[in-house]
Amino acid sequence: MKQALRKNRWLIAVTVLFSIIVSAASVLIAILLQRIIDAAIQGNMELFWQTLFFSIGYVLLLGLLSYIYAISSKALIRNWTIVIRDQVFRGVFRRNFEAFSTTNTADYLSALSNDIKLIEENYINPLLLTLQNIVIFVFSLAIMLFISPLVTGILIVCTVLMFVVPSLFGSALQNKQNAVSEQMSVFTLKLKDLLSGYEVIKSFALGKHADRKFGQENAAAANTRFAADRLLAMNESVSEILGILTQFSVIFIAAYLIITGHLSAGSLVALVQLSNGFVGPVLIIMQSLPKIQGVKPVVDRINALADYKDHSFQGVLEPTFQDNLKVSQLSFAYDDKKDVLLDIELTLHKGKKYALVGQSGCGKSTLVKLLTGCYEGYNGMISYDDVELKQLDVERLQQMVSTIHQNVYMFDTDILQNICLDEDFSEEAIQSAIQRSGVNKFLLQMPQGLHTPVSENGSSLSGGQRQRIAVARALIRNKPILVLDEGTSAIDMQTAFEIESKLLSLPGLTLITITHNMNPDILMMYDEIIYMENGRIAEMGSLEDLLALGGGFSRFITLEKSAAV
Ligand SMILES: Nc1ncnc2c1ncn2[C@@H]1O[C@H](COP(=O)(O)OP(=O)(O)OP(=O)(O)O)[C@@H](O)[C@H]1O
User: Where is the signal peptide (predicted)?
Assistant: First the structure.
């Protein structure tokens, strides 16, 4: 937040300056009114014309100044919104894999939309209003003191009373605003869940259930907002009543002073006008301060997201992978309760091909995530060319690895952009990647070819087509390490075989394939099969060696094959 405001300091200065000028100038209306009324009562035609011409010029100038203020304050809000959204977005992407996945993405969405809007409405706007009204208040006070110290004294007493109100509502409102933000976050989360689950809801005919769930969340969000608005309304009404009482006091006392000959009629009009400029600002400040106070937890949350610093993996050494990747006595638990990986000993050599197999949940994906620097909290050692991973610059390490996941995310653009992902590649590289991945096979059926739109998360493509695009995405980058996390599971057997065979024949590439495909024709092409059981490496060797061993892997492959039949 502070940085976002600092970046706009010139615009803030202009806005504040014009806010002061416009506010001060608007107070002078009272003096003009006093002069017109007194001129009329005294029958002073010269003063009348003088004041009339001055008033016309004054109103035109005030209009122009107000316009400049309005434009600069809107530009300030626009710039602030751009900067703060950018900062929150970058803060989210500064999170490492582990930190990112501990928060639901709906929370990030809610912060970037609802929370920023809440801050604009309940922090930035009230802050500008408060400043403007402080200026009006001070100028009105000065002129009123000049016209009638007695009336001013009474006004001050009433105003002190009015200031007590916001402090009564402040902390209650803070809790309510916080609840609104939290409830909106829950609402966004549920809504995202329901929309993402569209297919499941439709295919299981769960429309009514979805309606009911949405209805509950919708009502809960609206009711939480209403609870905060109810308190705001009470705060505003109490302030309003106090304001009216104050104005009545001024009029009655001023009227008394006119009757006793201590005040002119013009001064009464000026005092009434000034009391508006005195009470009005106090009212606005009273309504604005609780809003500013109330939205503080939301501001804190946005600050925490924008200023997020990743303290994991502080290593700075340039990673290399000339020879090997070693793992020694590696253990890991996600939640400090149960070890997901235990005493892993492993050496992977550059250019070799490894198949990682084992029952679902035995820790295959977790092992690969640790090898590629996704989680830092492991015990034991992972080293690239004998340098511990924690000493390496992990961002650069991750640039050496391409991963093809089972569930491929597709951006809502076309096929080409989903392969290149905003990077520039030569025509030759693109053609080579689409050939080797098998993308060319289905492009023939598409009139727009590589420029065919894929729709939201690739919904206009089949699972296999999405996976082939993911393979092209990885191949075009030519990284030394490729992780295939069941990355061809949705492709037909023949194409999957072709793709995997091509990957297996790339000489410099180190391939780690997590697979449930127990086809011996493919498995025999791997240099080593790493068979895992309950978080440990149970067996490791070529297909031939492991089958000859007749241990856990042999039983596993037999079971998998019979399950597939
Ligand atoms: N982010 C996470 N937080 C907590 N536990 C997790 C997380 N990811 C995985 N696990 C747990 O860790 C264990 C190993 O999961 P992992 O995904 O590594 O298994 P896997 O062998 O790759 O399974 P599969 O073959 O089904 O993909 C499982 O018990 C799983 O529930």
Answer: none
pTM of the model: 0.70
ipTM of the complex: 0.97
Nearest CA to ligand 1 atom 25: 360
Residue 459 binned pLDDT confidence (cut-offs 50, 70, 90):
confident
Query: Residue 19 and residue 17: Cα distance in Å, rounded?
Result: 5
Whether the CB of 364 sits within 6 Å of ligand 1: yes
Q: Which of 100, 366, 372, 556 is the best mutation target for the ligand 1 pocket, counting ligand atoms within 8 Å of the beta carbon and taking the most?
A: 366
Among the listed residues 187, 189, 278, the one whose alpha carbon sits nearest the alpha carbon of residue 224? 187
Domains 2-184+224-306 and 407-478 share a fold: no
What are the extents of the domains in the chain?
A: 2-184+224-306, 407-478
Mean pLDDT of the chain: 87
Residue 404: pLDDT band by 50, 70, 90 thresholds? confident
Rounded distance, CA 111 to CA 302, Å?
Answer: 7
pLDDT surpasses 60 at 565: no
Which has the closest alpha carbon to 189: 113, 121, 95?
113
Residue nearest to atom 27 of ligand 1 (CA): 360
Nearest of 278, 382, 271, 273 to residue 328 by alpha carbon: 382
- How far apart are alpha carbons 519 and 536 in whole angstroms? 23
Residue 293 has pLDDT above 90, yes or no: no
Contact 530, 355 (CB under 8 A): yes
pLDDT at 564: 60
Dihedral sign for Cα 380, 384, 388, 392, please: negative
Residue 207 burial (CB count, 10 A)? 10
State the average pLDDT over residues 79-92.
Answer: 90
- Is the beta carbon of 366 within 6 A of some atom in ligand 1? yes
Atom of ligand 1 nearest to the CA of 334: 4
Phi, psi (rounded to 5 degrees) for 388: -60, 135
CA distance 116 to 511: 44
Question: Distance from the CA of 564 to the center of ligand 1, in angstroms?
Answer: 22
Atom 17 of ligand 1 has which residue's CA nearest to it? 365
The average pLDDT across 240-269 equals 84
For 76, the token pair is: 């300030």
Average pLDDT over residues 76-93: 90
407-478 maps to which CATH number? Answer: 3.40.50.300
Q: Is 334 in the pocket of ligand 1 (CB under 6 A)?
A: yes
Which superfamily is assigned to 2-184+224-306 in CATH?
A: ABC transporter type 1, transmembrane domain (1.20.1560.10)
